[in-house]
Design a protein that fits this description.
By secondary structure, the chain is an alpha+beta fold. It is built from nine helices and 20 strands. A hairpin with a 6-residue loop joins β6 and β7. The longest helix is centred in the N-terminal third of the chain and has 22 residues. It is elongated and about 120 Å long.
Length: 407
């Protein structure tokens, strides 16, 4: 494709030829022909350089966290001999815009680098990538498309927590500590006839009454998770803009709690009520945790229902988990009712509430309804951590966060 300079030079050659013909000036004919041939030679030269190319992209300094500057190194392999001079790689990265990088020759490859500054958490697909080949005089230019299947992944800033706030239990209005009851991971599998010598504690009384003879419970190891972290990704509950938004703080809190459990070897899981209902088990601190961290890096608040919806599914992983921590910025009465039901049924529950008021530009007071719901949870002995914009996350999630709901 001709550049603006190439089109101008070609037009000048044509006008020069017309002038030579109109005025009968023979010396102008070679000049006109030379201008046209220069454009034609540039086009041939550029097309001769077009050949299969492979771009390798690498990120320096390993994993990158939200807010980091991300250096990107490009290495271009060209089939056959390298073209003379330098080439330009033009990339478009989702939400990060266009970037042009000059590649310079180094031995048998072409290299170039650029830096993405203060990148927020997220997954950034490479939307387009191409090599721009241009002749030395800038008359002809072509674009060679490159593979663009890669994505840039920026992880949330997770904090280290030795002891979670929920492990101290809740607190009653009288100041007494309410410790969480840890349940054993066994479930009723079936019933069978009682055998002499078995403990009467295993008798299944409803079946005994129905059949008129002693029936005992057959228990099997439960596949449920010990602890689950439910990250509320309801799109309507987000206040603020990334990286200063309620959801970004929720992601950091959920990841920190999940990591604290995974480091101790507990069977944990991450549940996110996005549009597609994401779920990731973390039963090891190697592969499982890595996949959960990638999920936290890429998750977007596109959920169409609140966290209470997942707590309505009796067969869902959130309900079946022995312990559940909900991380949300929307404290609805329905969600509070579900948490209270867990507590009254001796299923451990905890809440991390990201106060949306602290992210609002007007700095209004917390709504009375949210304050009332927090009081209900506290009176039931459910541990509550309240996070506000600018809080030290490690301190808030590690200490006993039983705050006065009116504070």
């Amino acid at each position: 494709m001709l550049t603006g300079r190439g089109r101008a030079l070609l037009a000048l050659g044509g006008l020069t030829y017309l002038a030579a013909w109109a005025f009968g000036s023979e010396p102008l004919y070679p000049l006109a022909l030379g201008l046209v041939l220069a454009v034609a030679a540039a086009a041939l030269w550029v097309r001769a350089l077009r050949r299969p190319m492979t771009l390798r992209r690498s990120l320096w300094r390993g994993e990158h966290l939200a807010g980091d500057d991300v250096p990107v190194q490009l290495e271009l392999d060209v089939e056959g001999s390298l073209p003379p001079g330098s080439l330009v790689v033009r990339e478009r990265i989702a939400r990060l815009g266009d970037h042009e990088t000059l590649l310079r020759r180094r031995e048998s490859h072409l290299y170039g680098t650029y830096i993405l500054t203060e990148v927020p958490r997220g997954r950034y697909p490479i939307e387009s990538s191409e090599v721009v080949i241009e002749d030395p005089f800038g008359l002809e230019r072509i674009q060679v498309p490159l593979s663009r299947s890669e994505s840039l992944l920026v992880y949330p800033r997770i904090v280290e927590i030795d002891r979670l706030f929920s492990e101290s239990g809740g607190q009653t209005p009288g100041g007494r500590r309410f410790l969480l009851r840890r349940m054993i991971g066994f479930e009723l599998h079936s019933v069978r006839e009682y055998e002499q010598g078995e403990s009467l504690r295993r008798v299944h009384w409803p079946s005994t009454a129905r059949r008129g003879e002693l029936m005992v419970k057959e228990l099997e190891d439960s596949p449920r998770d010990e602890t689950a972290v439910l990250l509320d990704a309801d799109a309507t509950a987000v206040v603020g803009e990334p990286p200063e938004s309620t959801f970004e703080l929720q992601v950091r809190a959920a990841g920190s709690i999940l990591k604290a459990n995974a480091r101790r070897g507990r069977r944990a899981s991450l549940i996110v009520n996005t549009r597609d209902r994401a779920y990731q088990r973390v039963h090891s601190f190697d592969g499982d945790w890595k996949r959960a961290l990638e999920l936290l890096a890429a998750v977007e608040p596109d959920g169409q229902a609140g966290a209470a919806t997942l707590l309505s599914d009796e067969a869902g992983p959130a309900v079946r988990a022995l312990e559940l921590t909900v991380v949300t910025a929307a404290l609805s009465p329905r969600l509070v009712e579900r948490l209270l039901q867990r507590a009254f049924g001796h299923h451990a529950a905890a809440l991390v509430y990201v106060d949306p008021v602290s992210f609002a530009p007007d700095g209004a007071d917390r709504p009375l309804e949210a304050t009332a719901q927090l009081l209900r949870l506290e009176r039931a002995g459910i541990p509550v951590a309240i996070l506000r914009r600018g809080d030290d996350l490690a301190t808030k999630l590690a200490a006993v966060q039983i705050e006065a709901a009116v504070g």
